[in-house]
Amino acid sequence: MRAAPIPEALLDPNRDPGGSREAVGLGSSAGKGLDVRHGTILTLEDINVSFDGFKALTNLTLYIGVGELRCIIGPNGAGKTTMMDVITGKTRPTSGSAFFGETLDLTRLSEVEIAQAGIGRKFQKPTVFEALSVFENLELALKTDKSVWASLRARLSGAQKDRIDEVLHTIRLDGSRHRPAGLLSHGQKQFLEIGMLLVQEPQLLLLDEPVAGMTDAETEFTAELFKSLARKHSLMVVEHDMGFVGTIADHVTVLHQGSVLAEGSLEQVQSNERVIEVYLGR
Amino acid sequence: MNQPMTITLAQKAGPRLSLAVGGLVLAILLALPLLHLLPADSALHVSAYTLTLVGKILCYAIVALALDLVWGYAGLLSLGHGLFFALGGYAMGMYLMRQSAGDGLPAFMSFLAWNELPWYWYGTSSFLWAMCLVVLVPGLLALVFGYFAFRSRIKGVYFSIITQALTFAGMLLFFRNETGFGGNNGFTNFRTILGFDITAQGTRAVLFLCTVALLTGSLYLGFRLARSKFGRVLTALRDAENRLMFCGYDPRGYKLFIWVLSAVLCGLAGALYVPQVGIINPSEMSPTNSIEAAVWVALGGRGTLIGPLLGAGLVNGMKSWFTVAFPEYWLFALGALFIVVTLYLPKGVIGLLRKEKEQ
Amino acid sequence: MKRRPFLQSTLAASALLLTGLFPYTAQAAETIKVGILHSLSGTMAISETSLKDMALMTIDEINAKGGLLGKKLEPVVVDPASNWPLFAEKSRQLLTQDKVDVVFGCWTSVSRKSVLPVFEELNGLLFYPVQYEGEEMSPNVFYTGAAPNQQAIPAVEYLMSEDGGSAKRFFLLGTDYVYPRTTNKILRAFLHSKGVADKDIEEVYTPFGHSDYQTIVANIKKFSAGGKTAVISTVNGDSNVPFYKELGSQGLEATDIPVVAFSVGEEELRGIDTKPLVGQLAAWNYFQSVENPVNTEFVTKWKAYAKAKNLPNYQTAVTNDPMEATYVGINMWAQAVTKAGTTDVDKVRDALAGQTFAAPSGYTLTMDKTNHHLHKPVMIGEVQDDGQFSIVWQTEGPLRAQPWSPFIPGNDKKPDYAVKSN
Amino acid sequence: MPASLPRILMALALLWPLASQAGDANDFVAANPAKQAKLLESWAAQPDPARQPLLDALQQGRVAADSSKTAFIEEAGNFSAAEGEAEPASPPKKLRLNNRLRGLLQTAQASHQLLASEASVRLAAAQQLQKSAKPAQLELLNARVASEQDAAVRDALALALANLQLVDPDPAVRLQAVRLLGETGEPLARTRLEALLDGDSETDAGVRTAAETSLAQVKRRLLVGELLGQAFSGLSLGSILLLAALGLAITFGLLGVINMAHGEMLMLGAYTTYMVQLGFQRLAPEYLALYPLAALPVAFFVTAAIGMALERTVIRHLYGRPLETLLATWGISLILIQLVRVIFGAQNVEVANPEWLSGGLQVLPNLVLPYSRIIIIGFALFVVALTWLLLNKTRLGLNVRAVTQNRNMAACCGVPTGRVDMLAFGLGSGIAGLGGVALSQIGNVGPDLGQSYIIDSFLVVVLGGVGQLAGSVLAAFGLGIANKLLEPQIGAVLGKILILALIILFIQKRPQGLFALKGRVID
After folding, report:
1. Contact partners of A by the rule of 3+ C-beta pairs under 8 A?
2. Highest mean pLDDT: which range of C173-182, D367-376, D399-408
3. Which residue stretches, if any, does this entry annotate as coiled coil (chain B) (predicted)?
4. Same-domain status, A130 and A91
5. Which subunits have 3 or more CB–CB pairs within 8 Å of chain C?
6. Chains A and C physically touch (3 or more Cβ atom pairs below 8 Å)
7. DSSP secondary structure letter of residue D253
8. Residue D502 belongs to a domain with what CATH number?
9. 3-state class of D65 per DSSP?
10. Which pLDDT tens digit goes with each residue over B233-281?
């Protein structure tokens, strides 16, 4: 199988992918050490993963540009979640290379190191710390020194409190700040998790079905949120909801049987015959 | 379960009441050894039996608290805490044996016709070094074991079972005469501690006070930990370890810290237990004892600081009473208690008390 | 709604706790209190329960004869639950809270070691009824079981005799704890003194609760090819069944390789099918099958008692050595109290020295004047298919105990009278 | 000494025919043990078919004596005089033999049985004599070898003779004997040959060299037997661990209940066996030998019923809270232990192996495979197969797997989850009950029986990988064999400790056990 075509935008050195060259310097999200000289924040090349003979990913090659908002779609079992596992270090590929920026080899880093390097992940099923209050959830996610010793002496500074308040406001949970996260509704948990990603200030956000279980209004709001996040951050969104994908995506990648089937704008992808074949059946 | 909530809850429900009860209990505990010093015919005299019994239960309470730190807060159920407790006890026992042996070898060694001390006995005649061992031996063992276990992400039942295997192996090892710790008889017949007669009223009172101090200290430590960000990270770790890792926390360090701390607390409790009870032997390492400790915690209410103390007190108090009043039936009572508590009081006795308060 | 019952149960629980901490003390002194300290639950219950019942029977018997010093005996039974620290706690409770005048109890050495400091501190009186490794002589304990020279050494002498099969090689098999280790140490020294070389002695230990004896039995077989072999077993209670079953199924018979056991008596044989065991040996100071009027009466009384109290499996009730030792101990204590005219520990201790009692073993046993141990006869019994022993050899008369075995270096300097270990 | 003893015996033997008429039985009964031993030795050297009934009676313990030392033989409760006509002067008392006499009696029996008409009896007798023949029997053996018709018996006799010929004055005879011994695998032959290597005891160099060659051969055969024995004991221990753990593999492995009361299910299975045995003894003593077979279904249903009752009353409230099931089942286990202790007493109860489960199969001279163990290995495999079939080929199994994988989904699909849970727990408990029946045949049956197996059972299940039947099987046999390999090297105690340490290390390496399912991480 041939490697999927690389988007033009990424090949053209004169073009700012996602128009976000300057985003590198924006906010604190652009990690001090991360080398994104070539405008690519994530590079996956020829990734293979197999579980006891079952090939979950086959020669997967994918690039995400700095500040880009990429949607990944694909039928069940296409390898979307496995790909996220590879990026976050949860699953080790049998072969292939995965780089964050130009220099960070994701296949050699532990999950924690990857998270600390600036990749945040939202799980398919919203996962929050149910026994802690909403505020405490955000406090834990906050970008700060996360070593044992630091946590023993940690006190929130005024600026940090303000930051949490700000995010609480953004995700519309100011009213529930002292409620235990376990008592939130499904949609609220989704937002809380997104909020946790925000305070973590990663450069790359991996979002696995973020709007599942949300009302239309919430979905709309999420779309707005993501659009505002792009450019400052790079986003990779796995989603089934085509409507949602249509409202946010500049670029869409279709995965099928563990490798990239098609890539391009939503219209391009939707008119791709192979995609139609896969989605609609022969 | 929900620790931070319960703390806020307790605060709401009336810190004054909690403080008053706590202060009262502490006052009683501090008064007991003083009353013990009264002449035996005085009406207020507290007998050595009561004092050692309460002292023993307090030591168990420390173990329960230590276990709760790893189980209730970090979600790691150890079925091997008896090992750390016994190791601390053995370290103290070595010192006590050396004290009663004077310049010679401990009695059981001359009896095995050993002519010199094994290397690991060197320096145990020094109280200071023995105290170091009390902390170091359980601490280092926990560190090494924990490092490997947490590195391999062993958790849940797997963790419980291998800790059980660990303490079982320890028990078999200490059973052997050849290991050099007195075989299954262990250490008994202690005479003096720091030159004081171990059976003297004053020594008993001081040992008891040390136990109370250790318990209060551990409680305070636990309280501070639970209220710090560290405590919240532990709770988060217990409920969603993966989420925590993707937030950039390395769970290994957190687990290892609390695990070693807990082991050291157990070791200290063991060290205070031995001179009060007068014997340390390998049966303290039997898996059954460690399971019983888990039962104290569950009974009292895990994830709280006071619960384990209540649990240890209740179970051991009942044990002392039942084994005299209905010697043949106490196992029925104990067994039924476990079942009732797990079925109807998932939050333990403390949950029950809280419910009362809420209404 | 649920509030009240909950409150009540909490109150009840705390009441339980309080009564546990401060047990009501003493009623009027119309009775003489006798403590019974045997595990009724846990791993040792298997052996100790029948001693508790035997003690109660003996106390009933003394009460039926009018008690002591005009007072009835009142037994105080506690359950130390096979938990050694609990033994110490319970003994303190018996002595200081219940204020008993004497305690009958303990089985394992570790339990005795656990209570010893308490008895010495409070000047209590303990009667210990089980054979043990020796190396102890406390003024507060009377040992009515055998010391090693009253059990192990005569047994080995028998094995070396022509009647015992003239054994040349010895396989010492034990559970890995203090009693087997010490006994085997003494036996090895004894065998050396008889000219048996180290290559003809094999010592093997198993962990507690060991249940797989395949390898060991195979090794015994292999070892026995080198000459007439006897196995000396100090295997602990529960492991005996799998051991004997394995001997049987691998076809080792007593005629080929006799096994002499020091911890297997009538009570243990109740749990074993004895047909494959016929001919295996045990060494004790008493067997139920001893024929004399005292024993006949003793056995009859016990069976009647077991039936009257509806003890489990009373149909097959048997007596054994530690039960006899308990019986002898209580009776000797009663005689000493009568002689001293008081239950005061120091006076009773003095009165006990030289006390004699016509025991079910058919001998008149004497409490030694100085060393707190009974003079006891030694008997070797062969297992019969009915679970009883037939006595194949016995000493001429009772032997004086040597708690400090001469075969352990350094013991020659130990005094031959009881001194506090502290 | 060895030279003089035969001579004395020969002299005695010459006198014997006269004395013999006075009545062997009465002589024996009147003699003291030392004299009885002499009598038996002389009988062994001079077999007389007329003495056979007496020997049989002695061996069966039916010989008695009255106060006048007249011998009587008991027959179904009646005593009749062993010789001539006599009425007991007092109630006859049975003669008790000690071990030494019993051994001599065996040898004497064997001598007499050499005259038996059945070849198989003669063969067994010859084999017995290989072990215990005395120099006094040299002449007898020589005569029998010469007259024996059956080849196998003759070979066996020749070997028994060879043992005695090792001290023959003629080097040629010795040489032949040594060569003959080299063809056996008897552990005793090894000792006998080793004794010849020494220049003092064996003067002839040729015999010494032959002894060396023979010894090497014997040693090789012995080694084979030892290795096979080790392998077998490993398998056997593995099968026992497996039977102990299999029930747990279901209740813990599939249902996720940390079932601390599992050991007590084993114990109840064993006690059921005891009860069935009692029942047979009372009601159908003629079929007593079959009681273990009858106990299997009974134990299965009894423990399954108890398991189901526990599941319905306690455990069903605790699904999804595994660590709490630990506490509740621990409570259950305490109650069951004490209950059994109150009902049956704290002592072990007697469960006897029936005839067909006693003894063993003599494969090599130094290798006996006990029938009980062979059958238990087979039984373990049978139970595994049965469990596998139940779980994989039946509707119940499908439901169980569905419920354990996704309870809610299964409920939605119309699977009666409550019933399935109950049945699955019952199945696990029932299998534990079957394990209990097997354990009762090799170990003790007491209230604490389960406690001694519970830790091992958990280790097997965890090591194999929770929820993996095949993993449990592999882990059980692996542990059994590893244990038996280590035991001869470092002893049982250190072996056990080392095994525990290895398990801890192994779980570090493979936290999910031997047979873990790999796959996408599910959160």
Report:
1. B, D
2. D367-376
3. none
4. no
5. B, D
6. no
7. I
8. 1.10.3470
9. strand
10. 999 998 888 888 888 899 999 999 999 999 999 999 999 999 999 999 8
